[in-house]
Specification:
The protein is 8% helix and 30% strand. The chain has 165 residues and is mainly beta. The chain has 1 helix and 10 strands. A hairpin with a 2-residue loop joins strand 6 (121-127) and strand 7 (130-135). The strands form 3 sheets. It has a 4-stranded antiparallel beta sheet, with no helix packed on it. It has a 4-stranded antiparallel beta sheet with strand order 7-6-4-9, with no helix packed on it. The chain has a two-stranded antiparallel ribbon with strand order 1-2. The chain has one helix spanning 5-17, and strands spanning 22-27, 30-35, 88-91, 96-99, 115-116, 121-127, 130-135, 140-145, 152-153, 158-164. Among the domains are: 5-35, no CATH class; 86-164, OB fold (Dihydrolipoamide Acetyltransferase, E2P) (Beta Barrel).
């Protein structure tokens, strides 16, 4: 297995942005392990910080305001839930390029209004020349597509929303 410098940089960038801590590539007598953070079983102790007490600064008496200060808004219950609260977001599990179809000359996997079932492929994310199929996690209807075909996406970026049934 040959790995040029650009491919290695791309691999390191993808690993640093992904939610993985270690990856190992093996091919014949070639082996490469990339690890983020401490080795398994190692513990990193947080640095201790010290608190230094300082005397409070002297504050001069201020004249009373002539107009009453606006009242702070009262804390209230959270806003009522909207219809969007029940939508399920399909997010990108990695950094890569979003594709709606398996090939440029083929129809997209899904469009707004399409019904999907759990496990159905809804798009592809290309990362490091690998095509990763992204599947729906629920049965439902596609109500929003938030990414254009061929657009770069980030880890955790919302790709589409599904109204579950």
């Amino acid at each position: 297995m040959e790995l040029n410098l650009d491919e290695l940089r791309e691999l390191l960038s993808a690993v640093s942005q992904a939610d993985i801590s270690e990856i190992t590539l093996k091919s014949g007598d070639f082996e490469l392990t990339v690890r983020k953070g401490p080795k398994p079983g190692e513990y990193v102790l947080p640095q201790q910080t010290s608190v230094v007490e300082m005397p409070a600064p002297a504050i001069a008496a201020l004249p009373a305001p002539t107009a009453p200060a606006p009242a702070a808004p009262a804390l209230s219950a959270p806003p009522p839930s909207s219809a969007n609260d029940k939508l399920v977001e399909i997010t990108s599990p990695m950094v890569g390029t979003f594709y709606r179809a398996p090939a440029p000359d083929e129809p997209p996997f899904v469009d707004v209004g399409d019904r999907v079932r759990s496990g159905q492929t809804v798009c592809i994310i290309e990362a490091m020349k690998l095509m990763n199929e992204i599947e729906a996690e629920v049965n439902g209807e596609i109500v929003e597509l938030l990414v254009q075909n061929g657009q770069p996406v980030e880890f955790g970026q919302v790709l589409m929303r599904v109204n579950p049934t």
